[in-house]
Amino acid sequence: MSYFIGDNPLKGILHDSYYFPSADDISYIMNRIPLSRVMDYFHNLVREAIDLRIIIPRIMIFDGQFVRTNCNNNKNSKTTKYNDSDAGYYRHSGKKLGVGFVHWTLYAYCGSWKRALPIHFETFPGNMNDKPASRKTFTAFNNLKIGEWKMVMGDTGTYCKKSLEFYQDRGIFPLLRAPKHLKTHPTRELKKGFWFNSDYFPPGWTEQDILLMYAQRPLVEAGQSANPTFYNQKRLNTRGLNMAHLHRTLTYILDLMRAITAYKLGRTDLLTKLSAFSTGREFKTNSMWIKLARDSGFCQLQEIALNPRQKAFWDKRRKWEAELRKKRKNGKF
């Protein structure tokens, strides 16, 4: 019978300002939590995922993603700086995307899980060059001594001779896609549009092995596309590099917590399901039970209160059902 109530059992707390913090309270707290503490928690989750063998430290995949900051794209006429002094103007493949930051993220290829999970990232102004940004990101992660990794993959934005030697000197095989038609590098086109430097292939690997491995790189696109679509991170609601970094850290913490929770529940099929632990399902279930309670003549019918949005929805639904019954009765439907 408790299902007929249709509300979260914590509703009394969540709607009481004495217990539940407001947006201002949360903003106040987040501005005072040291970023290093949040990053430590994120890396602890990475270590736990490695211990559970959700993440196997073998192959890293690089990818960068731009996010707009909370300011316009014009410089202040007096200071000749953007309203967010930490941000930079980002251009990619000839496209002008605006003022903001780039999150350079290292993902771990998780094999049969068919998903890449974040293991580290760094945030840079939008005008930072991709090549040094990727090297700095790797250096910061390598200093943490989390796992022993064997290979790093990246797109053409990370490719240069300096980067290839940088990773090789650290015992990491660099599988970086090269720009086409490089005259000074021994690049080969393994398939149409896919060029690689043959001097840096892992020993004993064939061209087919290289293509099969690089075919796994698009797995990071699933994680990256979820940031603007599922987490609504096309634009920040704050300014400053530290807040941009903190904002993305919280997202990656949620990704790892979801994966670890799914694994511990024995539901590895939910490891990559973004909506499995969201409130969307609960909201739909609650709405369903309210309707069932009304239709069943539940004795406490009058005590079930609807918010204005729910009331408008069910009023519209009842009107539509009445019109549908009328059409059926008249044989028009």
Keywords:
333 residues; alpha/beta; 10 helices; globular
Structural description of this entry:
- This protein is α/β, with parallel strands linked by helices.
- The chain is built from 10 helices and 8 strands.
- It has helices at 11-14, 23-30, 35-51, 130-142, 161-169, 207-214, 219-229, 241-264, 280-296, 308-329, and strands at 59-68, 88-92, 95-109, 116-125, 151-154, 173-176, 187-191, 194-197.
- The relative contact order is 0.13.
- The model is unreliable at 1-6 and 299-303 (pLDDT under 50).
- This is Transposase IS4-like domain-containing protein.
State the gist of this model.
The chain contains ten helices and eight strands. The chain is α/β, with parallel strands linked by helices. This is Transposase IS4-like domain-containing protein.
Helix and strand layout, with pairings?
Blueprint: H1 11-14, H2 23-30, H3 35-51, E1 59-68, E2 88-92, E3 95-109, E4 116-125, H4 130-142, E5 151-154, H5 161-169, E6 173-176, E7 187-191, E8 194-197, H6 207-214, H7 219-229, H8 241-264, H9 280-296, H10 308-329
Parallel strand pairs: 1-5, 5-6
Antiparallel strand pairs: 1-3, 2-3, 3-4, 7-8
- N-C termini distance: 37 Å
Reported for the largest beta sheet, the result is: 6 strands, mixed
Looking at how many chains there are and whether they match, the oligomeric state comes to single chain
Structural class: alpha/beta
Q: Using only CA atoms, what is the Rg?
A: 26 Å
Whole-number average pLDDT? Answer: 81
Number of helices, where a helix is a run of at least 4 consecutive DSSP H or I residues: 10
Strand composition percent = 15-25%
> Based on CA inertia axes, which overall geometry fits?
globular
- How many β-strand runs? 8
Outline the low-pLDDT stretches: 1-6, 299-303
Helix content: 25-40%
Order of helices and strands: HHHEEEEHEHEEEHHHHH
